[in-house]
């Protein structure tokens, strides 16, 4: 049973969280008051983390999927000795503070990922657990285990109602990711009211059907029961969900209701809470015994475990020197590439960029054994796969991840693998279904996480599958995400440049789109110039009458249109712009060199929504309607994207 110091620590967590929220006059006290015993038990009795080495490779990962409970998370890291002071707690939700409204990766010491959009945390944690499973399979030898840690999640009712969470849970159960432990704060309340107003499913039966181990704790204040449940979860050969029955806003006047979900308690109700909990401390006051308890439990355990691990790793280096060298290459993504081994494509040959990318990605994977990923049940169509067999319950050494039809979860899982470290993950699908991944891609950009997303079938030239499968607005959507690099290569050289950028990116996620149809390999494209975002690919005279700007499958059409216009006595510059994101980051001088202000007779060309191109040209040839169902041969004719059509459009510019 909980002793005096346990109760004091739990109530300190509760009241520090309440104080933070009251001072900010903003936040979510309900989860802080209800879940404090869960967090206290996990941190003081189980979690292996070291405040002096928060990026230690073999630390346990903890993800607060219910990111609105950030006040509780910051309190835990403060009490655990991480770089979060009382002053930081007092600045909760304030301008440029280290304690923002929802947890932000890279802003707050100890935070493993940016959370808040419900369902993303638990789904990303599946990727973290997958990474641990792969790396432990690959590197652990007997008692020498560089990777031997757990991934813990605290989630709420809202997380489990999100569709992405169902996909990720199904995937984790299929793979037997046994070192994934989800603590479910089950309080039967959500923002609109009682959970059963909108959700009456049986959590136990649902998760057991997905091959999870299920444990229930009936009293969310019982530290011993929570502790025992976590110990039981560690013995399971499946991922585990522990449903802990809690009371939202525990101890407050509005406990058990949705009123306290996202509303500060205020001074009067806080005083009533303190009386109920018999807590006699001032605002932001912490009894020294609380710090001492965290020091003697979490901090001491973390430092001791880290020290043992470091000693083990040194012995590992002595016993397995080659494996140790490979381990460091994995962790620092430090591989020397032989570019002469990559596929070469002769000018004039024709191939779809999806097939070219697949072949080049295979070569990258052969030379970079830390590359891992796959497609969302579309491998024969995207040509994107991992090597060394499939990652599956009977073989955790495969690098091809069969995500199944789970695009939502795939995006988050890719992020989780990359957040874990040691692996470089990618995921692939059809471009039109990038809709499903958008929240995860946005989070990758927000976290400065260099995840790789690959989408084939990037225009209406999908053809017979029709408008449901033909992207229109998708380039506009993804190009508008801050810190998100969308690259649309036109041929083999640009595919190579795009992949090299994606694989070597440090702080920016990359999206590469490819064609279904065969495209000509062009004469003047340049793999090294892709990093400039835009460059000149065709120009016959020093003086020119106008500029055609394009990318991807329309670049060759633009060049052909320029040749048509030359027959009418016009000299045309053609600019390939595979990445507006990268072009916008070049110097003003370079931008002026490629698109001089003196030449305003320009036409931007893309078989998608015209909106993004008005930044570079007053005249745009795009598609602002949905597609049609017809063979590919009809597409250019129907939408008027032949070289002759483009030439006529240019001549009609006033």
Topology:
Layout (H helix, E strand, L loop, with lengths): L3 H21 L4 H17 L15 E4 L5 H10 L6 H5 L29 H20 L11 E6 H5 L1 H13 L4 E7 L2 E2 L2 E2 L8 H7 L3 E5 L5 H12 L5 E6 L20 H12 L10 H32 L1 H12 L17 E2 L1 H15 L3 E5 L3 H4 L24 H14 L3 E7 L3 H13 L5 E5 L17 H6 L5 E3 L4 H13 L5 E4 L5 E2 L14 E4 L7 E5 L4 H13 L4 E5 L3 H4 L4 H7 L7 E4 L14 E2 L10 H7 L4 H9 L3
Parallel strand pairs: 1-2, 2-3, 3-7, 6-7, 9-10, 10-11, 11-13, 12-13, 16-17, 16-18, 18-19
Antiparallel strand pairs: 4-5, 8-14, 15-17
Helix pairs in contact: 1-2, 1-3, 1-10, 2-3, 2-9, 5-7, 5-15, 7-15, 11-12, 13-18, 15-16, 19-23
Plain-language structure description:
The protein has 654 residues and is α/β, with parallel strands linked by helices. The protein folds into three domains: 302 residues, 3-Layer(aba) Sandwich (Rossmann fold), CATH 3.40.50.970; 182 residues, Thiamin diphosphate (ThDP)-binding fold, Pyr/PP domains (Rossmann fold, 3-Layer(aba) Sandwich); 119 residues, Rossmann fold, CATH 3.40.50. The chain contains 23 helices and 19 strands. A five-stranded parallel sheet has the order 1-2-3-7-6, with helices on both faces. The chain has a five-stranded parallel sheet with strand order 9-10-11-13-12, with helices on both faces. Strands 15-17-16-18-19 form a five-stranded mixed sheet, covered by helices on one side. Helix 16 links the parallel strand 10 and strand 11. Helix 1 runs antiparallel to helix 10 and helix 15 packs parallel to helix 16. The chain is elongated. It starts with a helix and ends with a helix.
């Amino acid at each position: 049973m909980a002793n005096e110091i346990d109760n004091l620590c739990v109530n300190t967590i509760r009241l520090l969280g309440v104080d933070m929220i009251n001072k900010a006059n903003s936040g979510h006290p309900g989860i802080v008051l209800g879940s404090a015993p869960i967090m206290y038990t996990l941190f003081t009795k189980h979690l292996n983390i070291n405040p002096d080495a928060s990026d230690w490779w073999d630390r346990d990962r903890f993800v607060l999927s219910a990111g609105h409970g950030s006040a509780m998370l910051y309190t835990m890291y403060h009490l655990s000795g991480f770089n979060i002071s009382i002053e930081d707690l007092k600045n909760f939700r304030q301008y440029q503070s280290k304690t923002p409204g929802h947890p932000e990766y890279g802003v707050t010491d100890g935070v493993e990922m940016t959370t808040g959009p419900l369902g993303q945390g638990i789904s990303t944690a599946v990727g973290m657990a997958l990474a641990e499973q792969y790396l432990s399979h690959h590197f652990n030898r007997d008692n020498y285990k560089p990777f031997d840690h757990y991934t813990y999640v605290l989630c709420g009712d809202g997380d489990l109602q999100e569709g992405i969470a169902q996909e990720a849970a199904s995937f984790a159960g299929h793979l037997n990711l046994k070192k994934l432990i989800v603590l479910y704060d089950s309080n039967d309340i959500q923002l609109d009211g009682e959970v059963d107003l909108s959700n009456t499913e049986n959590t136990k039966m649902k998760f057991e059907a997905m091959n999870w181990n299920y444990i229930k704790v009936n009293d969310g204040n019982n530290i011993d029961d929570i502790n025992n449940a976590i110990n039981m979860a560690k013995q399971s050969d499946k991922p585990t969900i522990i449903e802990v029955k809690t009371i939202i806003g525990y101890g407050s006047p509005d406990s058990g209701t949705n009123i306290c979900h996202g509303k500060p308690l205020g001074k009067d109700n806080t005083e009533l809470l303190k009386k109920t909990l018999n807590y006699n401390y001032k605002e932001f006051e912490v009894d020294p015994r609380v710090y001492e308890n965290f020091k003697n439990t979490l901090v001491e355990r973390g430092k001791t475990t880290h020290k043992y691990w470091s000693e083990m790793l040194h012995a590992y280096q002595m016993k397995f020197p080659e494996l140790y060298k490979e381990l460091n290459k994995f962790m620092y993504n430090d591989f020397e590439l032989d570019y002469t081994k990559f596929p070469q494509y002769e000018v004039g040959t024709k191939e779809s960029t999806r097939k070219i990318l697949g072949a080049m990605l295979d070569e990258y994977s052969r030379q970079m054994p830390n590359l891992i990923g796959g497609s969302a049940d579309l491998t024969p169509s995207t040509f994107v796969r991992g090597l060394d067999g499939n990652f599956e319950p009977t073989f955790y050494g495969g690098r091809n991840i069969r995500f199944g039809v789970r695009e939502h979860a795939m995006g988050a899982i890719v992020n989780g693998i990359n957040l874990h470290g040691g692996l470089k993950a990618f995921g692939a699908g059809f471009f039109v279904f990038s809709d499903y991944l958008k929240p995860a891609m946005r989070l990758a950009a927000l976290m400065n996480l260099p995840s790789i997303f690959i989408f084939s079938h990037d225009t209406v030239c999908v053809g017979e599958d029709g408008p449901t499968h033909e992207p229109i607005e998708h380039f506009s959507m993804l190009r508008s995400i801050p810190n998100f690099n969308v690259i649309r290569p036109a041929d083999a050289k640009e595919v190579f440049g795009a992949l090299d950028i994606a694989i070597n990116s440090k702080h920016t996620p990359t999206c590469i789109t490819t064609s279904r149809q065969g495209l000509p390999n062009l004469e003047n494209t340049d793999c090294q110039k892709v990093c400039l975002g835009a460059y000149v690919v065709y120009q016959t005279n020093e003086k020119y009458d106008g500029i055609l700007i394009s990318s991807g499958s329309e670049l060759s059409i633009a060049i052909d249109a320029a040749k048509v216009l030359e027959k009418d006595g016009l000299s045309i510059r053609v600019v390939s712009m595979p990445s507006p994101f990268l072009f916008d980051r070049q110097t003003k001088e370079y931008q002026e060199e490629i698109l001089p202000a003196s030449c305003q007779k320009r036409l931007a060309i893309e078989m998608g929504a015209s909106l993004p191109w008005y930044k570079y040209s007053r005249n745009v040839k795009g598609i602002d309607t949905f597609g049609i169902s017809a063979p590919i041969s009809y597409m250019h004719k129907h939408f008027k994207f032949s070289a002759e059509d483009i030439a006529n459009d240019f001549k009609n510019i006033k």
